[in-house]
Amino acid sequence: MRWQETGLEGSFLLELEPAEDERGFFARTFCRDEFAARGLVTEFAQTSISFNHLKGTLRGMHLQASPHEEAKLVRCTRGRIFDAIVDLRTGSPTYLKAYTVDLSAENHAQLYVPAGFAHGFQTLEDESEVLYQISVPFVPEASRGYHHASLAFGIDWPLPPENVSTRDHQLEKLARS
Questions:
Q1: If we measure between CA atoms, which residue out of 23, 20, 177, 151 comes closest to residue 90?
Q2: Which CATH number does the domain housing residue 60 bear?
Q3: For 149-161, what is each residue's pLDDT tens digit?
Q4: Tens digits of residue pLDDT in 61-80
């Protein structure tokens, strides 16, 4: 795997280093030792998928509150998404800074999202699927989020937001400070 820093402390974009032959390719998507060497989560308690029928669907910006903060390893396994994360760790040098990247079934890239970050995405193709490896079990009472159009984040979504859940529409908008 090739590790690229995102500019947000503790977050990385991981690109595969495929070994290719006439059959296709083989590549590692996770290595406990490489994650541990960077001080990242090395065990995942849960794996989930998000399947989205329509291009433009927007989900986010979600996180879990303390003490249930979750780290995530996110990959698009079908279609293409615009993925966004925001550092919400007070005291962090990158507090309220965002990072965005296109993840697709074609590029096989993954995004490591540290605990204390909000995460969301918008589908760029119909029939897109996102795979999450999550460090802790989901706790419904700890589920939190902020509106995707929060000015504090400055995220420029590539498409008009569509198919946004009622819950996500009602999330608090953070203003610029």
A1: 177
A2: 2.60.120.10
A3: 999 999 999 999 9
A4: 999 999 999 999 999 999 99
Residue 100 lies in a domain: yes
Tell me the CA distances in angstroms from 41 to 36, 102, 150, 175, one per residue in order: 7, 23, 28, 31
Q: Mark the ranges of the chain whose per-residue pLDDT is less than 70.
A: 177
Is residue 175 in a domain?
no
pTM above 0.85, yes or no: yes
Is residue 13 domain-resident? Answer: no
Query: How many domains is the chain partitioned into structurally?
Result: 1
Determine which one of 108, 119, 132, 147 is catalytic. 132
Could you confirm whether 132 is annotated as catalytic?
Answer: yes
Q: Which domain holds residue 127?
A: 43-169
Q: Is 112 among the residues known to form the active site?
A: no
Asked, for residue 12, whether it belongs to a domain, the answer is no
- Structure-derived torsion over alpha carbons of residues 128, 56, 177, 174, reported in degrees to the nearest 10: -80
CB contact at 8 A, 63 and 145? yes
Which one of the listed residues 62, 68, 119, 148 is annotated catalytic?
Answer: 62
